[in-house]
Amino acid sequence: MDVPPASLVAALVLASVFALRGGPDEGGGARRFWSRRRWISAAAGVSVAYVFVDVLPELAVQNRTIVAAAGRSALFAEQRVYLLALTAFVVLYGLQHMVLSSRAQRRGAVVERGARDGVYWLHLAGFTAYSALVGYLLVERAERGPATLAVYVLAMAIHFLIVNHSLSEEHGRAYRAGGRRWLAASVLAGWAVGATMPLGEVTFARLFALLAGGVVITSLSAELPDDREGRFWPFCLGSVAFAILLLAAG
To answer: How much is the pTM?
Structure first.
């Protein structure tokens, strides 16, 4: 199998996002950048635009692949790709719910912020698998051409900025000391598996559906109002601007 060299470059770019500082306790330009909540909202808007303008239309295409392979008479043949997207959404939402439930304990100093407790490891494991999936799909994106790969990398890089900041905000020193390295390594590991194990059409369709559900919940959990206080207009601007970019690229 000939692996497009651009896919390796893309994997390195995405992995490097996790080297950026983005937590509330970190100083310098990154702290000033992320302390302005509007930038997180804009990044979430970009991710959501990517889902609605690019990912969901492709899910419909991938659904036809799954239906053709399974046969229309198969149980829930027409809904399988969307059920996979829902599965990823629910699993990552469950992880986020566990983190929110444990936040009160950390605030009450029952669990020290930055401690490597069970919630931390489970949260990290979920996003390690998610990051590996993003890396795994890079080879297929590269095979579709430079424009497809560029859009995917840009959208996922901005998306990973949200993930990096959110995990640093939630888990503090524990994540910054080692967690971000696991996520960076998982992107490269995912790419390596994708480069050595060619994706069948049905396998790609299923994995792409999981990615779609993951992007939706991760973006919305970073933006929807809680004590983080989302910003509507930056979110709107980010989504509109990236939607226009996607339409122009398509």
So the answer is: 0.84
